[in-house]
Amino acid sequence: MVCSLGFDRLIAAMDALATELGHPVIAQTGKSSYRPQHMEARERIAPEEFE
Question: What is the Cα–Cα distance from 49 to 30, expressed in whole angstroms?
């Protein structure tokens, strides 16, 4: 059995910090149910784009 745990708490914590960083934040969130309000969230980011 494979257990899939999301990162909702981590994403929420980063979202809260995003307003204090002074620059845009883009996060690769996977299939998270949390929808950030202060940063851009993407399910996947291609390796080429990440570079």
Answer: 16
Predicted TM-score (pTM) of the model is 0.76
Number of residues that this document lists for the chain: 51
Partnered with residue 5 across adjacent β-strands are none
Contact 45, 28 (CB under 8 A): yes
The CA-CA-CA angle for residues 47, 20, 11, to 5°, reads 50
Residue 7: Cβ-neighbour burial (10 angstroms; 0-12, 13-18, 19+): middle
Over residues 25-50, the pLDDT tens digits come to: 999 998 888 999 999 999 999 999 88
Which helix (H) or strand (E) covers residue 12, if one does? Answer: helix 8-18
Partners of residue 41 on adjacent β-strands = 27
